[in-house]
Amino acid sequence: MFFIRSLSSKIFQKNRNVCNALTNNNKRFLRKISLCGQYDFDLLVIGGGSGGLACAKEASSFGKQVVVLDFVIPSEKGTTWGIGGTCVNVGCIPKKLMHQASLLGESIHEARSYGWNIPEPVTFNWESLVEAVQNHIKSVNWVTRVQLRDKKIEYVNGHGVFEDAHTVIAKMKNGKERRITAKDILIAVGGRPRYPEFPGCKEYCITSDDLFSLPTAPGNTLVIGAGYIGLECAGFLKGLGYEATVMVRSMLLRGFDRDMVNLVQAEMEDKGVKFLIGKIPSKVSKQPNGKLLVEWEGDENGQGEFDTVLVAVGRKALSEELNPSAAGLEIHPESGKFITVAEQTNIPNIYAVGDVLHGRPELTPVAIQAGKLLAGRLYNGIQDQMDYDNVATTIFSPLEYGCVGLTEEEAINRYTEDKIEVYHAYYKPTEFFIPQKNVKHCYLKVITLLEAPQKVLGMHFIGPQAGEVIQGYAAAIKAGLTFQHLKDTVGIHPTISEEFTRVGITKRSGDDPTPQSCCS
């Protein structure tokens, strides 16, 4: 009898240990069942870029079960990257680092004027810059993965496609698939560079997806496209010592203030960047010497040889790749993007943020803010909506251009020319004097309503550190900045930002906006 009781006790203990092990191993699964009900997760995010990650982390902080799907389809040249999206890997971050490298090269030469003995020759190594940039990007990728783990957000390296409004199939690189369900789904897949249709484009051209990890120096580069990506790349390439030419179909920086754009172009031309205006590429072919022969059409047909051809003619939203019709999603017929109200698509439980939204600014901070606010509304009871008006931005051209609010053209169209006032001024940065740098393109503009108290509608600035300058004024415009506020503000001297507190000449007056001295 004792033997039987002892054996029964051992069997019971063994079974209890097995049950405990099963319970521990499935603890997260059981928690999901209890919290998510009939779905695997509360929130499924398709896209591991800035907007998607911001929403995922915010939702997790409210106790929600979150999964993030992220997969990079290789570029035509085979370039891929890690989690973090365009901004971290092939956008804002590497662009700003290469822009900084270009500015440092200029500063080295200017240093001689300030008494520094700089030995000749000053040389630059493209491979070293690319290695440093890529090492930084990989560190950010790693930190992002660690953050997801710490916040208990599941990460799936798979390409997500819809099966229905609550189900997404994650297609892995190894061919396997995983079916995932969620109560809410966020689309945050962004976009990729668009290739124009002409022979040799995909075979021989690169895009911004490839430039920042290019293993060899780009050499003489043709940039096709004159949006902010094209101009920024042409600017830093020239600053790093490579010939750069920009091919423009019609106008530079469409949608930006024309006075400012003309000055950006003039400054870039003074720096040695060439422009082919009114030209459209018709063919790219590789020559026996390894060069790329580009043929173009326009007011005058022509051709030229280049080492690298960079295509920057806009971006295509990755909406169709999601099989949106399976979930009943509707996309705009022209832009291919989702039309949303408060980031909600036509399917109530499916949302979108970032560059896949029709008619919204394609800017990383916009996606981040929208993602955070969306999570707060869905899971924390807040009512705050994303405000897409008066979003500041900066073009990191050789002489930077920062702006917030309306352009002069937009202000005229909205209020008529008789009801607005445009204050403007050229200025002289103090640090430009000793090296005798060109100051003729350092310019600012303040656009206001004519009627008191002259609400500020837009602010535009070309000069060093334009992004740093305009950011503070963006907050002021959000708070209801008037021209009187600017007049009442005492500037910090000598700074370039103080010029906004000193501007007083209007376009309407016809007076010369050029200062006579640094303190005039």
UniProtKB/TrEMBL annotation:
Keywords: Disulfide bond, FAD, Flavoprotein, NAD, NADP, Nucleotide-binding, Oxidoreductase, Redox-active center. FAD binds at K96, G160, D355. Belongs to the class-I pyridine nucleotide-disulfide oxidoreductase family. One of its GO terms (biological process) is cell redox homeostasis. It catalyses: [thioredoxin]-dithiol + NADP(+) = [thioredoxin]-disulfide + NADPH + H(+). The active site is at H493. Binds 1 FAD per subunit. It holds the Pfam family Pyr_redox_2. Its EC number is 1.8.1.9. GO terms for cellular component: cytosol; mitochondrion. One of its GO terms (molecular function) is glutathione-disulfide reductase (NADPH) activity. NAD(+) binds at G225, A226, G227, Y228, I229, G230, L231, E232, G314. Its cofactor is FAD. This is thioredoxin-disulfide reductase (NADPH). Residues 41-371 form the FAD/NAD(P)-binding domain. Thioredoxin system is a major player in glutathione metabolism, due to the demonstrated absence of a glutathione reductase. Functionally interacts with the Sod/Cat reactive oxidation species (ROS) defense system and thereby has a role in preadult development and life span. Lack of a glutathione reductase suggests antioxidant defense in Drosophila, and probably in related insects, differs fundamentally from that in other organisms. Disulfide bonds join C87-C92. Residues 391-501 form the Pyridine nucleotide-disulphide oxidoreductase dimerisation domain. InterPro entries: FAD/NAD-bd_sf, FAD/NAD-binding_dom, FAD/NAD-linked_Rdtase_dimer_sf, GSHR/TRXR-like, Pyr_nuc-diS_OxRdtase, Pyr_nucl-diS_OxRdtase_dimer, Pyr_OxRdtase_I_AS, Thioredoxin/glutathione_Rdtase.
